[in-house]
Amino acid sequence: MSDLLPVPEARARILSGLAPLSAERVPLSDALGRTLAKPLAALRTQPPWDCSAMDGYAVRAEDVPAPGARLVVVGEAAAGRSHAGAVGPGQAVRIFTGAPAPDGADAILLQEDVDREGDEITAREAAVAARHIRRAGLDFSAGETLLGAGRRLGARDLALAAALGHAEVEVHRRPRVAILATGDELVAPGGEIGPDQIVASNSFAIAAFVTAEGGVAIDLGVAPDEPRAIRAAIERAFAESADILVTLGGASVGDHDLVKPALEAAGVTLDFWKIAMRPGKPMMAGRRAAPATTLALGLPGNPVSSIVCSLLFLIPAIRRLSGRLNVEPERLQGRLGRDMPENDRREDYLRAALTRDSHGVAVVTAFPRQDSSMLRPLSEAECLLIRPAHAASGHEGDACDYLALPFPY
């Protein structure tokens, strides 16, 4: 495990052992952001009958071949209240948007295109067959599958699912992600900070990622640099039935880096340690197989390192467990906003500004300072510029790849 593992291989090894979690039925009101475990088919036809698309009068087109035609109004139809009879020769029915078209009617005259006196109307325009009538099944028909398994449900999907006739949907269980920060130097925000301590910040970003991706974040707090305390916190994650355990800090090779032995002592078999990336090289990944499988990700303590590793490895893992079809971060193409030096054997993820040139092409300009302890540049960044391992020096305007950082990332 001493060799540096390329980012794609590391991600592939993490994902290879993961499968979508079991399914559960939830009401539509609780389904936002959840992933369908089974496809949704229409339980009904929409609209279930021919209906009016406008306010006006339902007529027979043959009765109104030209302006000046006169018809007798024999009834009214509104949404939720249809006209019981049919439209016969020389007749019309006052109709409103969404109302079922009466039998015999095959066109709608707009209300502004008629003059009415009592129960008689005079057309100002000719009627055209099928005009302003929505045919039954225009949107969908019973039995049609419209939402597939693996789709993450958004607001528009919930509206469609309701229209299909579903009060509940079958979705994959939310991944449970336990988050453990480690280090004597860490103090929770608002706590009393000693002369050699700093505020613990990483876990808030990690929890936000988990929530945004549809998971359940379990805060294990901060464990001091003491083997038994770290081991006890790890065991709490297993007791909480965590599908993923994320540790923050203690993943390097110093005398106070105690997470690796604590994970192994708790039954985690490490798959790899050290990745050919910057920031984030000292990241660990492994699994505890029994009594239930838990993925363990040991992220570096530096804030930027832990966040970049979360984007590249944790979020894809959450998506896979959630049943999503597309799990990997999307690499986008743009142009360098400034010259870049050649790169070494590690793939770089550089905080950068994102603009557009006069042709709409993305221009990615890396910030001059990239220290992995600095959160301010990360907050200001709009994307991460990707510099491949062993990349030659790049010049302003050269093609490049980047990862966008949209809200809430």
Instruction: Report helical residue fraction.
Output: 10-25%
| Biggest sheet statistics | 6 strands, mixed
Q: Quick one: how many beta strands?
A: 26
Question: Helical stretch count?
Answer: 7
Ranges where pLDDT stays below 50 over 5 or more residues in a row are: none
Radius of gyration: 31 Å
Number of domains: 4
Global outline:
elongated
What is the percentage of strand-forming residues?
25-35%
- The overall pLDDT average reads 95
CATH topology of the largest domain: Molybdenum Cofactor Biosythetic Enzyme, Chain A
CATH-level-4 superfamily name of the largest domain: MoaB/Mog-like domain
Distance between the termini: 31 Å
The assigned structural class equals alpha/beta
Enumerate the strands of the largest sheet in spatial order, edge to edge or round the barrel. 7-4-6-5-9-8
Q: What is the annotated CATH architecture of the largest domain?
A: 3-Layer(aba) Sandwich
What is the C-level CATH assignment of the largest domain?
Alpha Beta
Report on the structure:
With 409 residues, the chain is α/β, with parallel strands linked by helices. It folds into four domains: 165 residues, Molybdenum Cofactor Biosythetic Enzyme, Chain A (3-Layer(aba) Sandwich); 54 residues, Molybdopterin biosynthesis moea protein, domain 2 (Alpha-Beta Complex), CATH 3.90.105; 84 residues, Molybdopterin biosynthesis moeA protein, domain 3 (Beta Complex), CATH 2.170.190; 73 residues, MoeA, C-terminal, domain IV (Beta-clip). Helix content is 19%, strand content 30%. The chain has a six-stranded mixed beta sheet with strand order 7-4-6-5-9-8, with no helix packed on it. The chain has a six-stranded mixed beta sheet with strand order 16-13-17-21-20-18, with helices on both faces. β8 and β9 form a beta hairpin. The two termini are 31 Å apart.
